[in-house]
Amino acid sequence: xxxxLIIILVIVVLLVAVVWGTYNSxxxxxxxVNEAWSDITVQLKYRAxxxxxxxxxxxxxxxxxxxAFEDVTKARSAVMSANTVKGTAEAERSLEGALSKIFAxxxxxxELKANTNFQQLQLQLQDVEDKxxxxxxxxxxxAKELNTKIKLFPSNIINNMIGHFKEREYYEVADEEKAQxxxxxxVKFD
Length: 190
Known about the structure:
- The protein is mainly α.
- Helices cover 82% and strands 0% of the residues.
- It is rod-shaped, with a radius of gyration of 25 Å.
- The protein starts with a helix and ends in an 8-residue tail after the last helix.
């Protein structure tokens, strides 16, 4: 009788330990993904703060390009107000397109391209773009790890009982960007 009680107690203790450990690992992964998403939003905010400076610098040289400046302002606002991964990705693509118009305008003005303030802003934007890419990779890695853990046994059972942890969306490139990546130009030397 005592041995049976000890065996039952050991089994209960092991089950509690498994549940406790699994829950804690899910919490850690969830927080890692939250941190990664926060890193993305910090970098997007920093970029959004740089954009008005770029626009004002270019405006000084290209006053007649009003629609391009309005597009950048709208796209910047959309990025700052997006609250989902998919919405942020879509708004960011729109902003990148609007920014490319601004830089195309800048190409038409050699004195603007030579402006040190504009050059510094371009370098800062490039730096923040690199940081955003790194933050996206970190976020996607965390989302993958969390999504996998949620689906694996025994985590799936524990999560289904608790119902607290949800799968995370991946921060993906647009379909047209995927097509460009998959259909990269071929280099041939004859």
